[in-house]
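Listing S7. Sequence submitted for prediction.
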Amino acid sequence: MRRAFTLFELLVVVAILAILAAVLFPVFTQAKLAAKKTSCLSNLMQIGKAALLYTGDFDGLMPWVPDSELQLTPPVSSAGKRYCGMGSFMPLFGPYLKNVKVWECPPASPIVTGGSWMMHFASPWRESGVDRPEKGWSNYISDKLAYTDPANPRYLRGRSPEAVADGIGTSVSSEEWLLSPFFERTWWAYAAPLWTVGSSVPPRKGWSAHFAGRNQLYLDMRAKWVKKDIDP
């Protein structure tokens, strides 16, 4: 006849399992986040390929939409720097992409569309001034597509990536144009009141979908992760 476990033996087993869980849970969490980071990079690379096909069909120029169609975030600095959502550009890149879901950054999905400061990252598909959320959403943001002064060398709409890089005095391999959602710590003092929605306030330490940094797509259409001023 088999001997039953004693209470002491059961407690030892429970304690061992608890220790293993405490050790392995962070490992599994990090692995899951790493997988989402890789998935996000894959999204950006697919968008990059679509951008190459688009520019190939339009004399090397990136898409243009009027200022009125830009879906801008609140400012992040006293200089008025903003980012724009990609909703108005989604229809232009649409013929070159098979899946509209590539516009969603995986760790930040489902996309927050209301009631949170993070709703500022969200932009619905927009055509001719009309929002079409049923056709898709994006939470990737762009700095260079957000500029409204065509004389600014970083102004990318309707220009070639090479012309923008030359105007800045750098190269297409060092200038980013599409970014996973993020909020830097140094923005907080100025931008937090502007980004606050109800009782939802950006965190003082900053926020990112990816390990205190962001994934970004460069003007040469490479994608990689870079560290930003965000506490883990």
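Caption to Listing S7: primary sequence and predicted structure tokens for the chain studied. The chain has a mean pLDDT of 91. The first helix runs from residue 7 to 57.
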